Amino acid sequence: TVSLGGSPIVTLFVESDTSIASERRFDKAISIPQLKARLEPITGILAHNQHLLLVRDSDKATIATIQGDDSVMLGAFPVENFMVLRVIDTNPGAASTRNQYTDVSLVQKYEMEDDKYDRLQDSVRDFKRRNKLGRFDDAKSSLSSDSSLPEPLCHRVNLNRNRKWVLRRRFLPSLFHSHLIKRGQVMYVGLTDFKQGVWVGVEYDEPVGKHNGTVAGKTYFTARNKHAAFVRPNRVQVGDFPELDLF
């Protein structure tokens, strides 16, 4: 305990079915009727309907029932710092309103129709649409919606790693190499051991790759040396891209 104005003060956690638990400080010299009067605005339970239990927080064991008249003080009970003061509403009609302030399932939720939300200009969806993020990314959506794929690319993590797709693709440049647009074919789509996430294994038309389909001693697909690389799915664009004639 600490001393405040010469009176011993104790810190308790006040709990009830009608309020969220809160930490409160009480003077041990306070009488039980005065204590209940202070608890009334905290818990919303009328003083004459309060049944007080002193509970040890560590094992939830009930230490004492706090009751008495003006001659009985809080300090008369074995109260210690950080115990729980449990306030029970003895009003017979309290059961019908119990948890009405803490049970969020009782709160009516506002739901907006999808077409109305789609017309909003300051929504998350509008932000993604304007900045071509997520499903509004043209490159990503074209890859996932290509009907020529054996399975939707959203299921690509379940594909056989040995499957080869002879599909023409254009591989988009990175931010720092905007002039480099490479063409080739997809040889592998799936997980890898060298890095997390889904990767697309490609064989470029020109020797602008990094390897031949083997990374760290593991062969994911077979390609000509310096023609193979792994790229992220959002760097792949689906389309009719024939090999370029450099001459």
UniProtKB/TrEMBL annotation:
Pfam families: CAP_GLY (PF01302), Ubiquitin_2 (PF14560). Residues 190-232 form the CAP-Gly domain. Keywords: Chaperone, Cytoplasm. It comes from the Eukaryota. It is found in: Cytoplasm. One of its GO terms (molecular function) is microtubule plus-end binding. GO terms for biological process: cytoplasmic microtubule organization; post-chaperonin tubulin folding pathway; tubulin complex assembly. SMART domains: CAP_GLY. Belongs to the TBCB family. This is CAP Gly-rich domain-containing protein.
